[in-house]
Structures are given as structure tokens and as C-alpha cells.
């Protein structure tokens, strides 16, 4: 029997073992890759017979899918676990913790020592074995299922997707880049690309199910390579041909691998979003070198220029870290300078967080907390001003919007996203959900647009 069949067997056995009406609650931290993993976790757990709840008090099983890219994720997990202690005693719930943080030895040790009531610890390479782990945990076994070697790619796991309109498709796992601040290569292992046919079949199936938008995921999507002569650009071109899918996004590309064939693929497609996420991290060549990013400030700006020249109407979003060790005022000003020059549509800003085991953690001149926060606030101020200015261009334009559902804040309104990824709300009938429609923007606000459907 192959591994997936073995797990299917455990799914059946678990379903026979548990009482009817069992519920599970899941907390997902971190990036879209983790969100996509959680969809697979939910798929497996629901086949085991559990139904989802967001109310901890009625849960029989609580799952955490963790992230460790910055320190605050740890605080969140341990805080929540503290809260669960009483619930564990009262309701005898099963607690399972998986994801990136579980790959870290010091976290495993802390859990063993201070949180002995955790039932299952599973890592990023053993996610597919959750049915087996759960089956054993139900029988009062304490499970630690974490391996250090790169996991194989398992196709055909059950999946319960969050959305009925847009879907994540992971195309590659792991990362080889070892940016000096980043823990991801240590907890996700080396790059492994999925077979192209598996990806194309998944996207075709999504199209058949009515999905309109897909986001291709990987830590470095543009180093995707499943065969010698099949790379990320080939994949984009093939996905572009799949009928039914109307919008294609991808996250995250690395500037060093943004080759001309990828630029051409975007240019030649009506479906691939012309808003490109291009992580900058720092605008200082000096810091970029210490970050091991393999490009300079000038090369980044050149790339932006080349993409704009070739494709025309493109927008950029980015990730930036402030307060990397040894970052001087001058280095930080280079970051502000790039932000001004590129005029990003959106910037995800992070304060540098020391990660055990990374090169940057061992660097001597760590930036003082106070300085980090002060720089962060200055960057935020600039970014918010740019976003406010940029938002004005939307008013009176017609945006092609994928209607995702009703608005959380006002269930009478519909919500969706523009091609550029902006949230837009508008009045309309719920039978528009899942469709692509034209919406005229009537006003702009910091984090969303308001519009009306064009009849
Ligand atoms: N592979 C992607 C995403 C990595 S994690 C990429 O290379 O773009 C998402 C973001 O978290 C990174 O882009 C980076 O900006 C931020 N990040 C990673 N490690 C960090 C750290 N130690 N401190 C603060 N931010 C960090
Ligand atoms: Fe981390 Fe760099 Fe890999 Fe992104 S490319 S996951 S920032 S090491
Ligand atoms: Fe976090 Fe793991 Fe993603 S560390 S950012 S959840 S790959």
C-alpha cells in the first residue's frame, strides 16, 4: 500500500472509532502556504468524521498550524496553549500542534517541559500522516511525528478549501535561498517542485468546480523546475490555457530569479495579474548583501524598470524588513528611497526578529528595539501616504472584480477584489458570488474601495 492509501485506512478507522458529532477547531498562523496546508489538514480531519467549529468550548480536537518566521507567533501559541489547559482537564480535548514551529528543537523541548498535555506534535514533512497520528492519540498515546529530512511530495490528499471562488495551489515546497534572517529553509527543507501534470490537473479540477482565481504558492515560485526544460514560465503559460480560470496570481517570486521568460508569460496573458509581488526586504545594497539576497538596490530598481517597460501597466507590492543587524540610518534611507521610487501599491512591513539558528542572529551589531520601532513608524508613515495617494486613481474607474462573498462588516454588501488585489465593496444580489463582474469605483478609503455594479 502506498502512503496515501495507508492514511485513507486510518481515516476509515478513526471514523469508526470516534463518537458521532465530534468537532474540531483550527488555528492557522503564518503565510498562504500554511493556509493551504491547513486546508489539507481540514480535508483529512473532516473525512475522519469531525466537523468544524470556531467555538473552542464545543471542540473535541484543537489543531494549531504554526509559523515561526517572527517571534510574536511563539507568544501567540504559548498564550493560547495556556488557556487550553483548563479546557483539556474539563473536556478532555485532543490538542495537536503542527507546522513550521514544530520543526524547531527548542520549541519541541519547551512543549515537552511546560505543556505536557499536548497530544500530537507533527512537523511540516509529516502533515499527510495526521490521520494516523490522530488515530493513535485518540487511544491515549502521546505522539511526536517530526522528521528532519525533506518530506516527499504526496499528491491526492483530501482538501477542504476556505473559499468557493479562489484557490491556493502550492507548486513547490521548501527553500534553498538561506536569506540570513530567515528560518524558513530550516523548517521547510530544500526546494522540491511538484510535477507539472499534478499541478495542471489540480487547476483543471478547480476550474471545473467553478473556481475563477488561483494563486500559485511557493517560497520562491520562480525557481520552480520539475524537469530540465520545464520552468516557472512554462507552467504559467500552460495554466494560462486552462479554460474557466480567469485570474492567476503567484507568491512569492524572488527578484534574482525573475527571468525574461516569466516577464513575457505575464505580458502575453490576460489572466495573470499585472500586480506583481516583488519582495525587496531592504533598499540598501550593503544590507541586501548581508541578507544574502543576491541583488543590489540598483539591480532591484533595474528589474522594476524592465518589467514596467516590457509589460506596461504594472503595479508592485513588496515585503520589507526594518532593523536588520548593522542597518544604519543611511541604509534605512535607501529603503525609503526605493519605496519612493517604486511607489508600491502595498507594502508588508516587518520589524526584524532574531531567529535562532540563522546567520543574522549571530551578527554582533543588532539594532536597538527603540531604533527599529522608530524606523518602522517612519516607513509606515511613508507607505500609508503613498497608498492614500495611489487610491485616488481608482475613483471613477471600472474594475473587473471577482465577487467573493458578502462583506463581513455589512452582510448587505458584496465584497471582492480588483485585479490589483484591492478589497472593493458594493451592493448587489448574492447570485453574483463566484462571478467576475464590472464594478465602477465611487469612493476610495485607506484599505478598501466602494463601488457600484455596472448593469
Ligand atoms: N519566501 C518569501 C516569503 C518569506 S516569509 C520571500 O522570500 O519573499 C515572508 C516575509 O517575512 C519575508 O518576505 C520577510 O519580509 C519577512 N521575514 C522573514 N524572516 C523575518 C525575520 N527574521 N524578521 C522579520 N521579518 C522576516
Ligand atoms: Fe526566507 Fe529568503 Fe527563502 Fe524567502 S527566499 S523563504 S525570505 S530564505
Ligand atoms: Fe511562517 Fe512557515 Fe510560512 S515559518 S511564513 S508558516 S513557511
In short:
By secondary structure, the chain is α/β, with parallel strands linked by helices. It has helices at 3-17, 32-47, 72-91, 105-114, 130-138, 184-188, 196-208, 232-240, 260-267, 285-291, 297-311, 329-342, 369-391, and strands at 23-28, 51-52, 61-66, 94-99, 120-122, 143-145, 166-170, 172-173, 192-193, 213-217, 225-227, 230-231, 247-251, 275-277, 315-322, 346-351, 398-406, 413-417, 423-427, 436-444, 449-453.
Give the secondary structure arrangement, pairings included:
Blueprint lengths: L2 H15 L5 E6 L3 H16 L3 E2 L8 E6 L5 H20 L2 E6 L5 H10 L5 E3 L7 H9 L4 E3 L20 E5 L1 E2 L10 H5 L3 E2 L2 H13 L4 E5 L7 E3 L2 E2 H9 L6 E5 L8 H8 L7 E3 L7 H7 L5 H15 L3 E8 L6 H14 L3 E6 L17 H23 L6 E9 L6 E5 L5 E5 L8 E9 L4 E5 L2
Parallel strand pairs: 1-2, 1-3, 3-4, 4-5, 5-6, 7-10, 10-13, 14-15, 15-16, 19-21
Antiparallel strand pairs: 8-9, 11-12, 17-18, 17-20, 18-19, 20-21
Bound molecules: S-adenosyl-L-homocysteine, iron/sulfur cluster and FE3-S4 cluster.
The site of iron/sulfur cluster (SF4) has 10 residues, from helix 6.
Amino acid at each position: 500500500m502506498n502512503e496515501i492509501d495507508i492514511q485513507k485506512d486510518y481515516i476509515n478507522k478513526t471514523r469508526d472509532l470516534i463518537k458521532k458529532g465530534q468537532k474540531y477547531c483550527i488555528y492557522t498562523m503564518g503565510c498562504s502556504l500554511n493556509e493551504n496546508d491547513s486546508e489539507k489538514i481540514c480535508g483529512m480531519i473532516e473525512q475522519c468524521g469531525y466537523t468544524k467549529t470556531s467555538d473552542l468550548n464545543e471542540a473535541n480536537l484543537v489543531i494549531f498550524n504554526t509559523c515561526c518566521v517572527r517571534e510574536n507567533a511563539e507568544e501567540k501559541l504559548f498564550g493560547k496553549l495556556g488557556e487550553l489547559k483548563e479546557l483539556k482537564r474539563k473536556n478532555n480535548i485532543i490538542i495537536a500542534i503542527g507546522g513550521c514551529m514544530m520543526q524547531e528543537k527548542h520549541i519541541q523541548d519547551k512543549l515537552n517541559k511546560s505543556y505536557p498535555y499536548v497530544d500530537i506534535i507533527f512537523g511540516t514533512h509529516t502533515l499527510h500522516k495526521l490521520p494516523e497520528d490522530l488515530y493513535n492519540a485518540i487511544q491515549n498515546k502521546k505522539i511526536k511525528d517530526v522528521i528532519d529530512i525533506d518530506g516527499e511530495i504526496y499528491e491526492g490528499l483530501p482538501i477542504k478549501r476556505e473559499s468557493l471562488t479562489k484557490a491556493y495551489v502550492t507548486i513547490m515546497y521548501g527553500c534553498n535561498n538561506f536569506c540570513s534572517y530567515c528560518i524558513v529553509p530550516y523548517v521547510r527543507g530544500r526546494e522540491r517542485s511538484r510535477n507539472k501534470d499534478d499541478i495542471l490537473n489540480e487547476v483543471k479540477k478547480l476550474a471545473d468546480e467553478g473556481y475563477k482565481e488561483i494563486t500559485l504558492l511557493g517560497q520562491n515560485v520562480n525557481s520552480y523546475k520539475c524537469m530540465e526544460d520545464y520552468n516557472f514560465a512554462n507552467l504559467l503559460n500552460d495554466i494560462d490555457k486552462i479554460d474557466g480560470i480567469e485570474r492567476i496570481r503567484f507568491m512569492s517570486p524572488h527578484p534574482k530569479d525573475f527571468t525574461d521568460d516569466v516577464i513575457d508569460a505575464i505580458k502575453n496573458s490576460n489572466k495573470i495579474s499585472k500586480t506583481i509581488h516583488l519582495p525587496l526586504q531592504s533598499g540598501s545594497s550593503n544590507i541586501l548583501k548581508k541578507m544574502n539576497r543576491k541583488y543590489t538596490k540598483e539591480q532591484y530598481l533595474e528589474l522594476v524598470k524592465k518589467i514596467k517597460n516590457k509589460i506596461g501597466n504594472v503595479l508592485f507590492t513588496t515585503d520589507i524588513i526594518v532593523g536588520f543587524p548593522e542597518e544604519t540610518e543611511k541604509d534605512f534611507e535607501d529603503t525609503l528611497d526605493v519605496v519612493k521610487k517604486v511607489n508600491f501599491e502595498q507594502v508588508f512591513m516587518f520589524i526584524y526578529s532574531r531567529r535562532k539558528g540563522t546567520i543574522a542572529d549571530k551578527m554582533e551589531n543588532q539594532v536597538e528595539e527603540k531604533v527599529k520601532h522608530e524606523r518602522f513608524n517612519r516607513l509606515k508613515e511613508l507607505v500609508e501616504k503613498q497608498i492614500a495617494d495611489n487610491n485616488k486613481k481608482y475613483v471613477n474607474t471600472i474594475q473587473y472584480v471577482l465577487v467573493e462573498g458578502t462583506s463581513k462588516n455589512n452582510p448587505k454588501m458584496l465584497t471582492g477584489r480588483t485585479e490589483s488585489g484591492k478589497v472593493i465593496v458594493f451592493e448587489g444580489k448574492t447570485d453574483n458570488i463566484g462571478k467576475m463582474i464590472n464594478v465602477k469605483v465611487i469612493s476610495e478609503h485607506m484599505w478598501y474601495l466602494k463601488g457600484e455594479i455596472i448593469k
